[in-house]
Design goal:
The structure is a homodimer. In chain A, 28% of the residues lie in helices and 22% in strands. Chain A is of the alpha+beta class. Chain A has three domains: 138 residues, OB fold (Dihydrolipoamide Acetyltransferase, E2P) (Beta Barrel), CATH 2.40.50; 261 residues, BirA Bifunctional Protein, domain 2 (2-Layer Sandwich); 138 residues, 2-Layer Sandwich (Gyrase A, domain 2), CATH 3.30.1360. The longest helix of chain A is centred in the N-terminal third of the chain and has 24 residues. Chains A, B: Belongs to the class-II aminoacyl-tRNA synthetase family. Type 1 subfamily.
């Protein structure tokens, strides 16, 4: 096989034969062709890839390496590599019986290297569904490189295989075209981001440590015992502190494709290690960061996915909550929330009247699920009801009112549903008008604490879309990419147990410049300079302008959040040492790629993901260690009794 | 400050003013200027960087952000940002007394944003030592952004500061020009590597997991307790298994700038987390990988560091050991080893005569340290003697012969030294001739087991170079970059305790194709397809062609290495599933950058390194955790008694 020498790039280039997607005519027009496309056979034992052969190669002697995909009548073998498939023609003369014998009987997925001449297929036998369907290769030499055993599943059928088996044999799953596409696209998108950030805008790619000190409130951090007894590193959830310290250190345009760690519930399609595009800049304001990210995404956006129109729309957090019941609204479809408090205040529906009277902080919200009455069955509505009960107790549920009020709109503006008989005509008509309801629509109402009620209906809105799509009503086009900035988040939120305040995002987020004074008087009123970027209902990026004033940072940590500022001593000292104003953002790369690849899970855009349960079914990680193996770290597994 | 709007790139471009290193004339000649240099002020509050202003900017109103570096006579302030320094002229009129007052009295390292007009300096006042020395900025507005406290050390003098203090305040150390240069160069070199691998040669950047299963023999792996009682992840020392599995999975050209972990002795300038450029290819042979790496380094080589001549020279392991006493020889200087066994066999020097008679596996080696007798003092020679005694017992030391034999060459070919009176004239003359010795040279001899003796003298050779350089004899030019491939390593080495064999590198290394049969009969004779790349005496890359045959892999694991193959079950199964032939390499990026940056330690090319002791003096990592914090992981610190 060592005779399969790599051909020099330039000569292949001049002949315009190298890359299947390069049109030779276009090639000649390129000023600097060497860098403009990829030579995927350089340094290797093949002369060409299986996917690149065309009529123009007819007559050439080629060397190909790949997997036996398919054998037909001892005449043909389909050879596959990562770039496509080609039909091999087996020699039928006696002198080459060994070649025929080997290739016709090797188990599929065996690896071979072949040599042969490219020839046009006989007239009428071209396969128009194959990129290489005009040609075939008449094999003159073959080397069996590795015989495959029978595999646990066929590479071609892998989508029907259960995920555990796919993860256990991930190396086979990776051969499938979907994962090949996803991983290659991921690499390309990241590269385009790097070109934009480094080559065009002078950002510096800096690696930050992953063995770090535990951060305050880092409840989901993995711990790593050191060889010093009783001392531990932690795997950080993000490079947040380091990127701020880089700003203090004058690395004023930083980015990193950063591995981050979070020891958390994996059911929501998360991974214990994940990747973010981490960016930070000095001397920047909120709009500067947003604009950078918009243009970064526009630059890195893959071909065939449309073009991105800039700037992306923006929406304050409060509006998003009131219109969509979510801080990451999917704006590809309507079904917005309507505040119907005024209508329901004297509606005859006691539970709504009472809760509106109870507190000015309560409201009644409604959603019109267009044409849902035509599709949804009783069991769908029951599912929505069930789901609405799983919400927080501050919604109407606590008032003895169980879940959603459902009204179906009948011909002539009549309504049907448990609440229908209580509701007066003026109220009913006002409701129909506010919601622009027509026959066949389904109106869903809920009441209670304002934001919680919005959240409940926001969740129900998504569930309705899920249900309707199972009936073939397409609400969310996977080819549409709706970006949206969410801004003006609250800086602090009340703690779940009501004992005080916690940061809505993290304690380094700067207050809105107009609200700085309120930090000291009315912290719950303070808006932050945090911004999220939402794509089709998923939060794909989040960032903020950071606090660069040491005193403000100390006040927030100690006086508002009641945290021990001592463990952040190094950061506070850094802020006092000539810290520039700065801000940044992190893009969740796995999620972004999953949306771009139309993947059901981020596991489909990661080469070796962990399972739902956080395991690696392939290697068996995590695995038990013996006391002896733990000895150097001075830890042991807790005894059963404790 | 929000009035400091970013200026559009294009208009700045057309004016050719953006980047300090871009000559406007050259700019106009560029076909696609937008991607050809960096716009480091885009999206930011500044209009220009401090370092880019030139006479051509005279008359322009500019906005600058930076650190107060130096104040002079209430007339001038030097403002610094990450791109250079500029002289600010303070207004002297009463209307702007506040500006003068503020800028003249701010503590140095405070952060300010200023606005003003660029003006040519008065004739005769230009500062030719400053890039911006032809101009100054007359300040019309200033905003004090962040007042600095007095810093623990001056940014300008940081080289004299002890390393602990520098690491404790790493964010200040980073402001210094040396670390700024090193981190920015590192980012650029990596980017050029990516362009070569991805854009030119179609490699795919794939992230592999860092939470993995413990590997056999992974004694230096960090462990990470999971939330499943008694089960642990490990942080892998390299993506070795994953990259091989990617080859099985058809990702036939993989690379990754990979974070790796090794819990090891840091005294030898290592770090618990380090970075390697990790590459793997299918359908490749050894020379293919070597050629790829040669051209990769040539492409990524920084400007101003000379050009690399390809191919790099190659040397078999055995020759390197016999010529330089090292498998990573520094070929920038001579002082090679000479085998003087034949000369010493009947020399009259009993100890040498005896050990040569004892065993055919013993030899006597000599080095001529040119002109050392003119420089080295007794204490230097004693130091060498001391050091030679710390070597393995198989060297002559065990024969009662304490350390090195030293002979100084006197005028007329006489020699001086403890051995001189025993040595006969024919032997002495033969020795002088073999070593081309002249007056003033110092000859060092040692004997014992052949390779151990070579190793000892190899180490002494480097120590001699270290000593001579303290006397100003320059042997190793830091501007010379001597690359060398070391090949034909042994595949197996005897274990230290003599109990069997271990892999010289790792168990996945393929035997040399000529030696495959010897694996089953004489494993100690087998050469491997491992290759190291050495630069100026440091191993900066290592790789191999891997085993792709499951049966050979199983035989080596079970029969030669006597390891439990069960924990590598997934890999063995993958090899049976149509694994292509493959090979790869990993470049130690930290070490490569340290050599390129002429840094004394890899800590100087890492943004936030750990100290010698493995600590982060800034954050205090690693740090104690409470039992409650360890509870979720079901581990506790071992009690004192155990």
């Amino acid at each position: 096989m060592s005779g399969f020498a790599a051909r020099p790039l330039l000569s292949r280039l001049l002949r315009g034969l190298t890359h299947p997607q390069v049109n030779p005519a276009r090639l000649l027009s390129l000023a600097r062709p060497v860098l403009s496309f990829k030579d995927v056979s350089s340094y290797s034992l093949r002369s060409h890839t299986c996917g690149e052969l065309r009529a123009v190669h007819a007559g050439e002697d080629v060397k190909l390496c790949g997997w036996v995909q398919f054998q037909r009548k001892q005449l043909f073998v389909t050879l596959r590599d990562s770039y496509g498939v080609i039909q091999l023609v087996l020699p039928q003369d006696k002198n080459h019986a060994d070649i025929k014998q080997m290739l016709a009987h090797l188990p599929t997925e065996s690896v071979v290297c072949v040599q042969g001449v490219v020839q046009l297929r006989p007239i009428g036998e071209a396969n128009k569904t194959m990129c290489t369907g005009d040609v075939e290769v008449a094999v003159s030499k073959v080397e069996m490189v590795n015989k495959s055993k029978t595999l646990p599943f066929q590479i071609r059928d892998f989508f029907q295989v259960n995920e555990h088996l796919r993860l256990k044999h991930r190396y086979l799953d990776l051969r499938g075209s979907q994962l090949q596409h996803n991983l290659r696209l991921r690499s390309q998108v990241i590269m385009k981001m790097r070109e934009f950030l480094i080559n065009t805008h002078g950002f510096v790619d800096v690696e930050t440590p992953t063995l770090f000190r535990r951060t305050p409130g880092g409840a989901r951090e993995f711990v790593v015992p050191s060889r010093e007894k009783g001392k531990f590193f932690c795997l950080p959830q993000s490079p947040q502190q380091f990127k701020q310290l880089l700003m203090v250190g004058g690395v004023d345009r930083y980015f990193q494709i950063a591995k981050c760690y979070r020891d958390e519930d994996l059911r929501q399609d998360r991974q214990p290690e994940f990747t973010q595009v981490d960016v930070e800049m000095s001397f920047v304001d909120q709009r500067g960061v947003e604009q950078l990210i918009e243009e970064l995404l526009q630059h890195a956006w893959p071909d065939g996915k449309g073009t991105l129109n800039l700037p992306f729309p923006r929406m304050p957090y409060k509006d998003a909550m009131e219109k969509y019941g979510s801080d990451k609204p999917d704006t590809r479809f309507g079904m917005e929330l309507h505040d119907v408090s005024d209508i329901m205040r004297s509606s005859g529906v006691t539970v709504f009247e009472r809760l509106l009277k109870d507190s000015p902080g309560n409201s009644v919200q409604a959603v019109n699920v267009k044409q849902a009455a035509l599709h949804m069955k009783n069991k769908d509505v029951e599912k929505l009801q069930e789901s609405s009960k799983q919400t927080q107790p501050k919604v109407s549920y606590q008032h003895g009112f169980k879940g959603l009020s459902v009204l179906s709109v009948l011909p002539g503006g009549e309504v049907k549903g448990p609440m229908a008989k209580h509701i007066g005509a003026p109220c009913r008509n006002a409701l129909l008008q506010e919601l622009q309801a027509e026959e066949g629509d389904m109106l869903l109402l809920a009441g209670g604490e304002h934001l919680k009620t919005c959240e409940l209906l926001g969740r129900i809105r998504i569930e309705c879309a899920n249900i309707l799509e199972t009936f073939g009503v397409q609400l969310r086009d996977q080819d549409v990419f709706n970006f949206l900035w969410i801004t003006d988040f609250p800086l602090f939120l009340p703690k779940e147990d009501g004992s005080g305040w916690e940061s809505a995002h993290h304690p380094f987020t700067s207050p809105h410049p107009d609200d700085t004074d309120l930090v000291f008087s009315h912290p719950y009123k303070v808006r932050s300079q945090h911004y999220d970027l939402v794509l089709n209902g998923s939060e794909i990026a989040g960032g903020s302008i950071r606090i660069h004033d040491a005193e403000l940072q100390r006040y927030i940590l100690e006086e508002v959040l009641k945290e021990d500022a001592a463990v952040l001593h190094h950061l506070l000292e850094a802020l006092q040492s000539g810290c520039p104003p700065h801000g940044g953002i992190a893009i969740g790369l796995d999620r972004l790629m999953a949306i771009l690849c139309k993947a059901a899970s981020i596991r489909d855009v990661i080469a070796f993901p962990k399972s739902h349960a956080g395991h690696d079914p392939m290697s068996g990680a995590p695995s038990p260690l013996t006391d002896a193996e733990l000895q150097p770290f001075h830890v042991r597994v807790q005894p059963e009794s404790s």
